[in-house]
């Protein structure tokens, strides 16, 4: 696959360059009739070439190896039996409005675009009965509003493989009936806006190993879906109710990585009540082994009513602290699925644990912290009170002691005289 990365300025420059060329400056490519069809080979000529106005009973047209190639409007006007259009290895493929315009109901047409670079898929580029539309190994700068709409009957398969898609306008795919939509190894480089798929009936949706920069609200506005599978893909941001679809059988969102997601991202996935089912015929939404960096807000997650949720290994990569773990554990979704939801605490790298385990751990940590706080308070109290009590008791002992009265100092002669007087009962002393 040719690796081409588009920026807005380069896309504008490319469009300006292309549309500055008038149709008169394009020369008809030489086409050879081979086995019931026409093969048109530009042989990598630098000339601006276009598809000639073919007629007759061609059943297919193949265009390959071109630098600049245009498909003019009404190119299918005189082709009553055409059922296959192939474009291979074209550096700049210009498809005009009403290029593939056919009012016939039969035969249905298959379109294959392989290894091409398209500045745009314009509005109403196809009208008629489309059986299969395949874009492979290609780059499309912009898909305009009403690019695919007004298709007669059901499209068997709409496939985008190994490609890069730039801007997609709202209602680019409108009022379509599709059996299978398959997006494989494809990057949507710009936001997938609201109602990109609008009022479409799609039985099977398969998105595998692809990248979406942003899915805005109602990006997929789809009805009567039997099965939806989104596997091994990455998303920058999924807005609230990005998927508006009713499911008849099962929806699966597995092995995906989401940078940021609104808590109501999947709320628009509901049960198709028009499909009769037995008492055990539940509709399931399976969320298995997904990684989400951040949910806004993280207080809860909501899902469509009555749909049966099957959840396992849902990883939240943004680190949490014990306070936030205990808070989100209180919400219904996280509490009901605590065994299947994994988070990591701050400063613990990639060590993920279930919310139920971390909630218990954080509570135990809180208990030990409380015990430690109480023990510390008791020790501090004792350290303060013991010396205080000791000082108080010592002071009390001192107060209870008798004061000793020391006799005045006397000479031996004075003492003898006092004793004689005492003996005669004339005076009383303390000794």
Mean pLDDT: 85
Strand content: 35-45%
**What structural class do the secondary elements suggest?**
alpha/beta
Second CATH tier, the architecture of the domain at 1-190: Alpha-Beta Horseshoe
CATH topology of the domain at 1-190: Leucine-rich repeat, LRR (right-handed beta-alpha superhelix)
Shape: rod-shaped
Helix fraction bin: 10-25%
**For this structure, what is the CATH class of the domain at 1-190?**
Alpha Beta
Describe the structure.
This protein has 431 residues and is an alpha/beta fold. The protein has a domain at 1-190: Leucine-rich repeat, LRR (right-handed beta-alpha superhelix) (Alpha-Beta Horseshoe). It has helices spanning 8-19, 322-329, 332-336, 355-400, 412-423; strands at 27-28, 31-34, 37-41, 48-50, 60-71, 84-95, 100-101, 109-118, 126-127, 130-136, 139-143, 148-149, 155-161, 164-168, 173-174, 177-184, 187-188, 197-208, 211-212, 220-231, 234-238, 243-254, 257-262, 269-271, 284-296, 308-320, 341-345, 353-354. Strands 8-10-13-16-18-20-22-25-23-21-19-17-14-11 form a 14-stranded parallel barrel. A two-stranded parallel sheet has the order 7-9. A hairpin with a 7-residue loop joins β27 and β28 (353-354). α2 crosses α4 (355-400). The radius of gyration is 43 Å and the shape is rod-shaped. The N and C termini lie far apart (126 Å). The model is unreliable at 1-20 (pLDDT under 50).
């Amino acid at each position: 696959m040719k690796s081409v990365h588009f920026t807005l300025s380069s896309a504008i420059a490319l469009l300006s360059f292309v549309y500055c060329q008038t149709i008169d400056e394009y020369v008809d490519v030489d086409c050879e009739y081979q086995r019931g069809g026409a093969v048109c080979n530009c042989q990598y000529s630098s000339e601006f070439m276009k598809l000639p106005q073919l007629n007759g009973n061609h059943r297919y047209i193949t265009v390959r190896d071109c630098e600049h190639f245009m498909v003019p409007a009404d190119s299918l006007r005189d082709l009553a039996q055409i059922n296959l259009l192939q474009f291979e290895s074209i550096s700049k493929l210009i498809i005009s409005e009403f290029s593939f315009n056919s009012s016939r109901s039969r035969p249905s047409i298959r379109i294959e675009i392989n290894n091409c670079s398209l500045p745009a898929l314009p509005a109403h580029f196809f009208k008629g009965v489309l059986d299969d539309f395949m874009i492979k190994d290609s780059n499309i700068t912009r898909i305009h509003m009403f690019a695919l709409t007004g298709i007669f009957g059901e499209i068997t398969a709409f496939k985008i493989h190994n490609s890069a898609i730039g801007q997609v306008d709202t209602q680019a795919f409108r009022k379509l009936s599709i059996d299978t939509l398959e997006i494989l190894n494809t990057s949507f480089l710009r936001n997938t806006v609201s109602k990109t798929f609008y009022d479409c009936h799609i039985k099977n949706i398969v998105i595998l190993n692809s990248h979406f920069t942003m899915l805005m609200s109602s990006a997929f506005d789809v009805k009567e879906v039997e099965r939806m599978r989104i596997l091994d893909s990455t998303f920058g941001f999924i807005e609230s109710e990005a998927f508006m679809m009713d499911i008849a059988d099962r929806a699966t969102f597995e092995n995906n990585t989401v940078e940021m997601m609104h808590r109501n991202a999947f709320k628009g996935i509901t049960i198709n009540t028009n499909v009769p089912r037995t008492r055990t015929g539940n509709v399931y939404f399976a969320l298995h082994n997904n990684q989400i960096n951040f949910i806004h807000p993280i207080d809860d997650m909501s899902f469509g009513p009555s749909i049966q949720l099957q959840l396992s290994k849902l990883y939240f990569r943004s680190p949490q602290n014990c306070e936030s773990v205990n808070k989100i554990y209180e919400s219904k979704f996280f509490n009901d699925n605590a065994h299947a939801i994994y988070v990591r605490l701050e400063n613990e790298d990639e060590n993920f644990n279930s919310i139920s385990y971390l909630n218990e751990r954080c509570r135990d940590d809180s208990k030990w912290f409380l015990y430690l706080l109480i023990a510390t308070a008791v020790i501090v109290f004792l350290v303060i009170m013991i010396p205080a009590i000791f000082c108080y008791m010592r002071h009390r002992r001192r107060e209870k002691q008798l004061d000793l009265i020391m006799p005045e100092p006397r000479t031996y002669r004075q003492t003898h005289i006092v004793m004689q007087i005492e003996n005669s009962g004339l005076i009383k002393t303390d000794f």
